[in-house]
Design brief:
Helix content: 55-70%
Low-confidence stretches: none
Radius of gyration: 23 Å
Number of helices: 11
Strand order of the largest sheet: 1-2-4-3-5
Number of strands: 5
Distance between the termini: 9 Å
Order of helices and strands: HHHHEEEEHHHHHEHH
Shape: elongated
Strand content: 5-15%
């Protein structure tokens, strides 16, 4: 019973922590550390929620969760009281739902990217002025990347006319940062969770917060190679132009509802969090992530 109570408390702490984190702005001063914290909260919440139900169901066996599941698999004929049967079914159902939705979202995204790459092979062209970038003959402003093993950075002809050479360099550096750091994999679990809990305001806000932090992390990587003001003016130009919608499964340079927050951050940057604070966030995230699996493995 102690394990079940501890896991339930851990799930509650993660849910409250995610709710509070959506309103904090210190995350903008250390987006990579904040992304790691968000991932830790999400993984731990899922494992702790499932674990609390299973721990309560398997408590009479005194073997913990992992060993208890193995034991009940060989002794399923033994009598069990109804509340624990319900808890066992609910825990296994939640685990199956979370796993299935995550895999389904991943497969759906991979299919969309494969279709888009096939389309790009037919309609996109190479441009000598921007080597390694696919160009679409579209008058609207568009700049996005299609991540994957064969990642591609795509811009439109309208973008070439809209941006100055320095602004274009900044936007391409931003998209390259998305590709190198595989931000699509960071966002996928939160997109999947928003599908299974569409009624949850906290989940929706968590998804939006992580999406913004990913863009800010890419901005930080890009401004190592170019002027942050050029990236800011490029974002503003995208905002006033006839923007082309970013395809499903891709990551765009100017997508989202918080472009002005990114612009202000680029033009008037605040000091980064101190190194010791970032280390504390990373260490705390690692400990939090390890807590639920350890509780699963502990014998009764």
């Amino acid at each position: 019973m102690i394990a079940a109570a501890t896991l339930a408390a851990l799930a509650t702490v993660c849910a409250v922590g995610a709710w509070r984190l959506t309103s904090h702005r210190w995350t903008w001063r250390a987006p990579r550390a904040a992304i790691l914290l968000w991932q830790s909260l999400g993984v731990t919440w899922g494992l702790a929620s499932v674990g609390a139900l299973l721990a309560f169901a398997l408590q009479p066996f005194g073997r913990g969760i992992v060993h208890g599941l193995a034991y009940i698999g060989h002794h399923w004929r033994e009598p069990h009281d109804l509340p624990r049967i319900v808890s066992l079914v609910a825990g296994l159902a939640l685990l199956a739902a979370l796993s299935t939705v995550l895999m389904w979202a991943g497969v759906e995204t991979l299919r969309a990217r494969r279709r888009h790459r096939m389309l790009l092979a037919l309609i996109a062209r190479e441009e000598p002025g921007v080597p390694g970038v696919r160009v679409l003959d579209h008058p609207g402003a568009a700049a996005y990347c299609v991540p994957g093993l064969r990642s591609q950075v795509v811009i439109s002809a309208g973008t070439l006319r809209l941006l100055s050479p320095d602004e274009l360099t900044a936007v391409l550096a931003h998209e390259s940062a998305h590709v190198r750091e595989r931000h699509d994999l960071v966002l996928l679990p939160f997109a999947a969770l928003s599908r299974i809990l569409p009624w949850s305001k906290t989940v929706h806000e968590a998804h939006a917060s992580v999406a913004l932090l990913i863009e800010m992390a890419a901005d930080d990587r890009a401004r190592r190679q170019c002027s942050p003001k050029r990236l800011a003016t490029a974002l503003l130009r995208f905002g006033t132009a006839a923007a082309y919608a970013t395809p499903y499964g891709a990551l765009g340079a100017s997508t989202g509802e918080n472009v002005m927050a990114r612009v202000n951050r680029l033009v008037k940057p605040r000091a980064e969090l101190p190194a010791h604070a970032r280390f504390a966030i990373v260490a705390g995230s690692a400990l939090l992530t390890a807590s639920a699996p350890l509780l699963w493995l502990l014998p009764g």
